[in-house]
Amino acid sequence: MADNKFSELHRAVYYEGDKSGRVTVAMLINMIILVSTDQSDSLGITEKDLTNLGFGWVITQYLIDISRIPHIDENLTLTTEAVSYNRFFCYRDFWVHDEAGNECAHIHAVFVLMDHKTRKMTRVLPEVIEPFGAEYTRRIERLEKPVGIMKEDTIAAKKSYDVRFFDIDPNQHVNNSKYFDWLLDSLSEDFLMSHDLKHMNIKYEKEIHYGHKIDSLVVIDNLTTHHQIKIGDDVYCEADCEWTKR
Amino acid sequence: MADNKFSELHRAVYYEGDKSGRVTVAMLINMIILVSTDQSDSLGITEKDLTNLGFGWVITQYLIDISRIPHIDENLTLTTEAVSYNRFFCYRDFWVHDEAGNECAHIHAVFVLMDHKTRKMTRVLPEVIEPFGAEYTRRIERLEKPVGIMKEDTIAAKKSYDVRFFDIDPNQHVNNSKYFDWLLDSLSEDFLMSHDLKHMNIKYEKEIHYGHKIDSLVVIDNLTTHHQIKIGDDVYCEADCEWTKR
Hints:
The structure is a homodimer of 246-residue chains. Chain A has five helices and twelve strands. Chain A has helices at residues 25-42, 47-52, 126-129, 178-185, 189-194; strands at 6-11, 55-66, 75-85, 90-97, 103-115, 120-122, 135-136, 157-162, 195-204, 213-221, 224-231, 234-245. In chain A, strands 1, 2, 3, 4, 5, 6, 7, 8, 9, 10, 11 and 12 form a twelve-stranded mixed sheet that branches.
């Protein structure tokens, strides 16, 4: 199989870090979307071209594995590869390596193509995915869904957030990474300063827009946390996280 | 007078832009603090060294002039110079230039040295500022204070924000740039999409901490907006903005 990986260097700067000097998960996600946008640009299939065709990529799920969260001021290598696609889904992998070549994070992502007019998922157009070297497959991956929150009475915390003007990015969506701030801010400072995120399964269910008021809910089960983003009774996003003691 | 300017290149990436694809003021401020931190590192007077001495730099005021706000994917040159200092204040200038060498923004900033133990302003130590080539002067700049909000009944909007875990940066403060998101998010999407910020005078009065709930208030007077960040009746930050129609 051909190697269709695309890589670039990225210096993690101080405003990509949290209080502990570690890169935030939100910024880690921003970085990997950056390398995939740069790959698109290098292949001449820009976000703008896609918009002009009436389409846009939407991420529906991330499976995030973190071996070691990088610190600010590290020089990282961001790598991506569009691995395969079927009628409706594209599967893309991302890797973040440190200067010594050690893997810091691996992220598996599921993308769908959205029709801007109907705002619904549409069939993947081979011409927008084949230049990446992705292989067509009839197989649909059966990825585990996050457990989310099963019983309301187990909720440890619930915080509300208004979606801000600056949460909307140049792609006209709530920036993907904002969800991570909402999800993880529901945990206490004590928890966030004493734990490292090792694994996260996050699934986006519905689009969130400017002006929405969302609730971020969390259930804490020892070293596992379960999360939901809701508006009223509707679930917009679910996630499970696995942590280790720092 | 010796040229003590320090410059570096910076690519504005998509997550540094707003819905319109323009770099946010928050990110512009992040970028200039980055270049000044890098200058400190290059001179061997790191933030960490200062912390070990029991001190930290705190910004008390910015005067921001924007000729043209850069777009994402522009390659910018960030420049800084510590110009002068007196017993209590350091004055630093910043410039952001585009690839053609045109000035996009000029920012004049006032810094003070804070004693971490007392959390009060302390006398500037010559040894932490002289390596930058800043000149000692007895003159204290009389910078205009923002007008802020004079009459409560003129307030056009008031929005509340909880300070989040991820608002605190590796320097253990609410990241400077967060204030800009709070201040400007009080304006409507219509206003923000149809106006360009030309000038901003912002003054930080008191430290904001994790867990605080702040109010962002705005008065709109045609192409001038006046802002305050308050907790209860106490003013934590004031700003005036001048805008042009886009």
